[in-house]
Amino acid sequence: MQRLRRLQQTIVQQRDQIARHNNYLLNEQRVAKAVFDRVAHSGCLDAPNIRYLQSPYALFNGDLLLAAYTPSGDTHLLLADFTGHGLPAAIGAMPLAEVFYSMTAKGYGLAEILREMNAKLKRILPVDMFCCAALLCVSAQRRCVEVWNGGMPDGYLQAALSGQRTALTSQHLPLGVLRAEVFDHATQVLPMLPGDQVFLLTDGVIDTCGPNQQLFGVERLERVLDANRHPLQLIAEVEQALQDFQGQARDDVSMVQITSQLPAFLGVPAIVYSDSGQCSPRDWSASFEFRAPSLQQFNPLPYVLQLLMEVHGLRAQGPVIHAVLAELYSNALEHGVLGLDSRLKRDTGGFAHYYQQRKERLATLKYGFVRFSLQVEPIGESGRLLIQVEDSGAGFDVARVMARPLDLDRLSGRGVSLVRQLCPAARWAPDGRSATVEFSWGGLA
């Protein structure tokens, strides 16, 4: 009886010790999760055109969902799935979120963001950890979606008018596996009209296990997609199908749906500046010429935009300036230097052929340039910015293009119309090889 009493006393002491230790660990995880959520969910996931569902398998979610606006009004969206779940899987999400938000805000494209993400994860993750990811750039203005899928289940692009569904398959290895010199950041570009939707999910959905050890699988998911009649209810219908399947989740389950939607306005700068602007440069000019080797692997837009945003009076117009610069640079590179015909993009097949030609011609480019000429001049307390973008191409028939109405509904030939809409002061040289736009601040007309 004495031994039983000592055994009972020992068990009670160990139980209390385990309970205290468990509460201590749970409290640490709650604090860490609060910090993690503030970092990981500081974007635009609450936007009206984004719907999502995340059901964590543990207190921490190994799935990561991020969304943020670019300075030009496009939407970058990342759905990632780290190996494992819980705290170890969430550790890699912090640097990933930092790269995603900071580079998106500065105007970098998917290729630059992907290279930086992969290099950082390759450097910090142990060899048995990696990150499957799908990264999107949804541009309602350019009527397209740019996709990179590395190790994630198929996503789906659903056309609103035709009802056609296109699978967004994985064509790359996950992030954090390959060294920087062999990492493939090539993306797929597809037409996406306003109202079209992209649906992404993690493997926790299709790997949900039923009562007979059957997996929910892709076929059941596609039957739900085929039966869907109200796109706004798709995620709820998939969730209901998982419940009817009586499945047991073995991993984190995440789904996200994003609709292409034109931004209501481009008036909120993506980057918040803390300086007073008293040291802002007010009278200067600069010229940059980017030649073939740079055009092949360097995106000059964030570099040029960062320089312009040092001018305090221009910061409120940062998103519009970025949108105009992006269109002018795209036209100069693709139609001027590379000689691509935008009429190829009139249908889905033409879209794929256009961007395949773009990739091939850029890879073999030997000559050519795109030149930016910037001039900032003060006018009293106000000021004016002049930007000239010139290319080495053959030019185009300016009079014919200018005679067209400002039609933004077509898939091709929209660049000039968009620039004229955002910047009425835009003008083109008669030979079509250079364009000049003007922005003013401080009350100038």
UniProtKB/TrEMBL annotation:
Keywords: Hydrolase. SUPFAM superfamilies: PP2C-like. It holds the Pfam family SpoIIE. This is Serine/threonine-protein phosphatase. Residues 60-260 form the PPM-type phosphatase domain. It comes from the Bacteria. The keyword Hydrolase applies.
